[in-house]
Amino acid sequence: MSYQIIDPLGNVAHDAIHDIESFFWLLIHIMLTRNGPGGSRRDISVALAGVLDLYFHGDPGTLSRKKGGLFLFSKKYEDAQAELSNLMVHFDSYFEPLKSLVQQWWNLLYFAHKYEAYELWNIHANTLRILDKPLPGPSSAQSEQTNPEVNRREEYHKSTLDAIKNSTIARRPQPRTPEKRDRKATSTASAQPVDPVSQIAGRGPSKKHRKEKATGH
């Protein structure tokens, strides 16, 4: 969540930049807590646990102050840059190629927060422009980690398609044919009409009524 929105003493109106910053922090959290492809969780060291407490697990005031150190809470750009560099040190080594993307994205957010100008009013387009840039290729070690995960996803995709193709789909009930509808209409029309008045009159008094009349009660 954006440092301005999470601030318990803040009164800033929610804007698009806060959504983009929240997305930024989501990526940071993945790089800190995940270990390579597949989403397996890293072994959290004492130092990393302290970082997570300051940026993600603390109370709202602490989170706002620490996250804000990367933006307007730092008096100078160099101070905010140092905060970011100290944070990126804790990224898992698998995400090394993404550090340049994080740096560019942070630059955009920093200047968008600092100046109400081009960076702020075009925050979505500028973010997409950064995310669309090609990333550096993975190292050989990263490729060795990635290939099994790619194979797993391809096999899962294929097995899912096979399951869909081979599954039995319940058939919809067939609508009645015109012949069946005509046959039912004919049988209904051929039935003899019954006069309800004559039917009631033909029944005569009920057994109970006849007994009461005979006994006088």
Task: Describe the structure using short key phrases.
mainly alpha; 0% strand; 217 residues
Write the layout of secondary structure elements.
Elements: H1 3-6, H2 16-33, H3 46-57, H4 60-68, H5 77-88, H6 99-114, H7 118-121, H8 123-131, H9 140-166, H10 178-190, H11 196-201, H12 207-215
Radius of gyration: 37 Å
Sum up the overall morphology in one term.
extended
Helix content: 55-70%
Mean pLDDT metric: 79
Instruction: Characterize the biggest β-sheet.
Output: none
Total number of strands? 0
Number of H- or I-type helical stretches:
12
SS-based structural class? mainly alpha
Biased composition (Basic residues): 205-217
Biased composition (Basic and acidic residues): 150-160
Organism: Sphaerobolus stellatus (strain SS14)
Biased composition (Polar residues): 139-149
Task: Tell me what you see in this structure.
With 217 residues, the protein is mainly α. It has a domain at 3-96. It is built from twelve helices and no strands. It has helices at 3-6, 16-33, 46-57, 60-68, 77-88, 99-114, 118-121, 123-131, 140-166, 178-190, 196-201, 207-215. The chain is extended. It starts with a helix and ends with a helix. Residues 150-160 have a biased composition (Basic and acidic residues). Residues 205-217 have a biased composition (Basic residues). Residues 139-149 have a biased composition (Polar residues).
